[in-house]
């Protein structure tokens, strides 16, 4: 309190004043007494100061949990429509380019049949399928597989099929094929089986009864080689599969002749399984379109299926082809069972 602090100060001043009078001993005594009072005043003032408040602070350390993002792993399957080793080489190049573009981990394979890719996508064992046209139609109907891209050859996303014979065989028309040996590619091949059968039926030939023998060669290349070698009298391929074996058979364009061509068929596809996340689908689509514009990408696509480019399409792109199949009596729903 102010009153308590002022009283010793006044007393000290009085004592100091008293020192001026009196004898030496008295002056010395009073001087030390005054000094003692001053020191006591300082201590009293210090004791009167408030005690600093100690603030206790609790520090909460938050632990940051880092959730490691799992890499996207995909399986990409190719149908065996050409030379298997070439498809593997080109497919692996596309795989590498896709991994670089997307950061995904991709495993590539070439199936043993067209149907194997369809079934793998239906079972979730293949995420991306390079499906032929009819294979896609069936996979969409059966498993909800969706097309994201169509291939481009000769500047267009359409192609035609052809029926070929040896030039020296004497066979000139489709009607001449009765009683002959016929080479097919695969039961799910669009131009190597489905459409040629429609063409033959229109010409009055029953493809199940009017041939002496039928052979499933497994690829378009193999059909051309079988006809060239005389193992089959005729065969069905896309236009113009003869070019794919010209390096090994330089005279194939002269030795093997075309006797009929099909109407236009929408080109083969890059398709994805039903439940693939939309963001993954978009990433794959965007990456493939970009890859198709690079020199390295063009080379890989050409090696796979003689592809020049890729174009974005949706399922409606194949509606016209569905109508053709329906008019020919091909029941997709029945085949999908």
Describe what is shown at a glance:
This protein has 337 residues and is α/β, with parallel strands linked by helices.
Protein model, in words:
The chain has 337 residues and is an alpha/beta fold. It has three domains: 2-46; 73-157 and 266-336, Periplasmic binding protein-like II (D-Maltodextrin-Binding Protein, domain 2, 3-Layer(aba) Sandwich), CATH 3.40.190; 161-262, Periplasmic binding protein-like II (D-Maltodextrin-Binding Protein, domain 2), CATH 3.40.190. It has helices at residues 2-18, 24-47, 84-102, 114-122, 133-143, 190-202, 220-229, 252-255, 278-291, 295-305, 319-327, 332-336; strands at 73-78, 105-110, 128-130, 146-152, 158-159, 161-166, 181-184, 213-216, 234-238, 256-261, 265-266, 269-272, 309-312. A six-stranded mixed sheet has the order 2-1-3-12-4-13, with helices on both faces. The longest helix is centred in the first third of the chain and has 24 residues, at 24-47. The N and C termini lie far apart (103 Å).
* CATH architecture assignment of the largest domain: 3-Layer(aba) Sandwich
Biggest sheet descriptor: 6 strands, mixed
What's the CATH superfamily of the largest domain, by name? Periplasmic binding protein-like II
Strand percent estimate: 15-25%
First and last CA, distance: 103 Å
Q: Residue share in helices?
A: 40-55%
Instruction: Please write the CATH class name of the largest domain.
Output: Alpha Beta
Which structural class should the secondary elements be placed in?
alpha/beta
Domain count: the total is: 3
Low-confidence runs of at least 5 consecutive residues: 1-6, 14-19, 43-47
Mean pLDDT: 86
Shape: globular
Major sheet strand order: 2-1-3-12-4-13
By DSSP, the count of extended strands is 13
Number of helices: 12
Rg measurement, Å: 45 Å
Order of helices and strands: HHEHEHEHEEEEHEHEHEEEHHEHH
**What oligomerization state is this entry in?**
single chain
**CATH topology grouping of the largest domain:** D-Maltodextrin-Binding Protein, domain 2
């Amino acid at each position: 309190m102010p009153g308590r602090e002022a009283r010793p100060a006044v007393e000290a001043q009085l004592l100091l004043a008293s020192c001026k009078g009196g004898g030496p001993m008295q002056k010395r005594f009073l001087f030390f007494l005054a000094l003692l009072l001053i020191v006591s005043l300082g201590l009293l003032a210090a004791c009167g100061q408030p005690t600093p408040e100690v603030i206790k602070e609790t520090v909460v350390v938050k632990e940051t949990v880092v959730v490691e993002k799992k890499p996207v792993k995909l399986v990409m399957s190719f149908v065996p429509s050409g030379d298997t080793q070439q498809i593997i080489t080109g497919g692996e190049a596309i795989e590498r380019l896709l991994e670089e573009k997307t950061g995904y981990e991709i495993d590539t394979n070439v199936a043993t049949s067209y149907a194997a890719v369809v079934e793998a996508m239906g079972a979730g064992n293949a995420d991306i399928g390079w499906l032929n046209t009819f294979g896609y139609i069936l996979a969409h109907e059966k498993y909800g597989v969706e097309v994201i891209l169509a291939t481009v050859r000769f500047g267009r996303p359409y192609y035609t099929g052809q029926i070929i014979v040896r030039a020296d065989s004497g066979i000139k028309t489709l009607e001449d094929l009765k009683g002959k040996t016929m080479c097919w590619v695969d039961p799910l091949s669009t131009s190597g089986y489905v459409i040629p059968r429609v063409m033959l039926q229109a010409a009055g030939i029953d493809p199940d009864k009017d041939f002496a023998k039928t052979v499933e060669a497994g690829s378009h290349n193999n059909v051309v080689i079988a006809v060239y070698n005389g193992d089959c009298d005729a065969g069905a391929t896309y236009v113009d599969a003869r070019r794919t074996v010209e390096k090994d058979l330089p005279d194939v364009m002269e030795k093997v002749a075309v006797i009929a061509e099909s109407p236009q068929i929408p080109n083969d596809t890059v398709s994805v399984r039903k439940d693939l996340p939309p963001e993954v689908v978009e990433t794959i689509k965007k990456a493939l379109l970009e890859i198709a514009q690079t020199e390295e990408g063009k080379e890989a696509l050409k090696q796979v299926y003689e592809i020049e480019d890729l174009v974005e399409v949706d399922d409606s792109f194949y509606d016209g082809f569905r109508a053709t199949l329906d008019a020919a009596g091909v029941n997709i729903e029945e085949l999908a069972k």
